[in-house]
TrEMBL record, chains A, B:
This is DNA-binding response regulator. Residues 126-223 form the OmpR/PhoB-type domain. Gene3D superfamilies: 3.40.50.2300, Winged helix-like DNA-binding domain superfamily/Winged helix DNA-binding domain. CDD domains: trans_reg_C. It comes from the Bacteria. Coiled coil: none annotated. The modification 4-aspartylphosphate is found at residue 55. It comes from Pseudoalteromonas rubra. Keywords: DNA-binding, Phosphoprotein, Transcription, Transcription regulation, Two-component regulatory system. PROSITE patterns: OMPR_PHOB, RESPONSE_REGULATORY. GO terms for biological process: regulation of DNA-templated transcription. GO terms for cellular component: cytosol; protein-DNA complex. It holds the Pfam family Response_reg. The keyword Transmembrane does not apply.
DNA sequence: TAGCATGGTAACCACAAGGTAACAGTATAG
DNA sequence: CTATACTGTTACCTTGTGGTTACCATGCTA
């Protein structure tokens, strides 16, 4: 999981980053609004972030404007944090499209929980996933196609669960790379091989693959039609 | 929108119900955990609620157990509220599957916002745009015309979402150029090609294009008339 | 009527993205 | 210690995308 932290207090930022790292969350850091905008421009979007933590009281401008920008076509959910207890601030941010807020001073464990929630990590409520003749039991870690039980390698299982969580929405290549090879330098071929192998294992005679490619957008778990 | 409020303080409950009603939110009310369980049993599920507001400090039992129950196969998202500021309580509830919390005493407008967000999270997942036989699912990135599924290239998808967001208002050429080719030098032909291709992909026999041109002003997504 | 601007369509093609198979190094199990 | 499976790597092939050009249609103006 990768998030963007926009926060001017260097000490607080350092603490936050340390804590989130310990929780397995990667953090990109912007000390100012200007820097955040640079990042947005560089990557051409905020798409690559699972969530954005946005401090409302930044020295160089109005954080609300960045919020608007992040929502203009991008999906990254925004959690804003504010020292002010003024209700109006909170309501304004919600109105602008923020999905959650936390009041300073906050407890780091709570921040971590909220970030994870925002990123949708907890939506693993569904114990089983079914699609046509494909049957995935998350808790038992069993995959079946029709009446044949399929054994997947660790990587393939990870990818399948990721796809199933988001189905039928597509999952971008970048998202998959981050999810399966969190640290290591990744090479495009590893991704291609993994996909081919998962497709092969899930395949069944005469039936089209359940893994659809949307060129340039990623892959999705859905029935062809 | 219909929600369930589980709260033992009658005065607070009445205020809350009044306020939420004024916001256009219908409220079912349970004063005790027992009553909440009855409701769950009657309707056979909490499914019919868009959200559940759950007070943690109820006289007749542990609210966490209801939380578990409400998650056992049902989809209603839970917002819990607590007078305690103990962090552990919050973390426990999050761990049990709550999606949000609010600390007493809370401001009613904030509660209303959070409830709407919570209820929206579920429906927001299925944000769709419809126009005649055209059907666009933003989160799943699926486009259908009638019962035919359409696959769009990244550029075309970007343009379609832009048009759909503003529909039925027209989008100027300059706006489109900036949105799709943010940095690069743009040539007018690229724009023309893109439009033609999107029109072609969205076309259906005998039906006029859903993309109308307003000369000099741009293009708009609307039915011809 | 010619001339020009705006907009639409079709065809071409370089090239990047995606798919497959085979091989090799390394871990893992029996 | 051997056999097996997993995963990274390379090579090669296929396909769709998107920039480009050429040409046509319409409408406005001189």
């Amino acid at each position: 999981m990768l998030i963007l932290l926009v926060e001017d207090d260097a000490v607080l930022a350092a603490q936050t980053i340390d804590f989130l790292n310990a929780e397995g969350i990667e953090v990109d850091y912007a000390a100012t609004l200007g820097r955040a905008r640079e990042i947005a421009a560089q990557t051409a979007s905020f798409d690559k972030y699972d969530a954005i933590i946005l401090d409302m009281s930044l020295p160089d401008g109005n954080a609300l404007s960045l919020l608007q920008q992040s929502l203009a076509g991008f999906d990254a959910p925004v959690l804003f944090c504010t020292a002010a207890t003024y209700l109006d601030d909170k309501l304004a941010a919600f109105a602008a499209g923020a999905l959650d807020y936390i009041t300073k001073p906050f407890a780091l464990p709570e921040l971590a929980v909220r970030v994870k929630l925002l990123a949708g990590k907890v939506s693993k409520c569904n114990q089983v996933f079914e699609l046509g003749s494909l049957h995935v039991d998350f808790s038992a870690k069993i995959v079946r196609r029709g009446n044949r039980t399929i054994v997947l390698s660790p990587q393939q299982w990870l990818l399948l669960t990721l796809l199933a969580e988001q189905a039928p929405a597509p999952v971008s290549k970048a998202q998959i790379l981050r999810h399966i090879w969190p640290d290591s330098e990744v090479n495009n071929n590893m991704y291609k091989s993994l996909l081919t192998r998962l497709r092969y294992n899930l395949s069944r005679d005469n039936e089209p693959s359940v893994i659809q490619t949307l060129k340039g957008q990623g892959v999705a778990l859905r029935e062809s039609s």
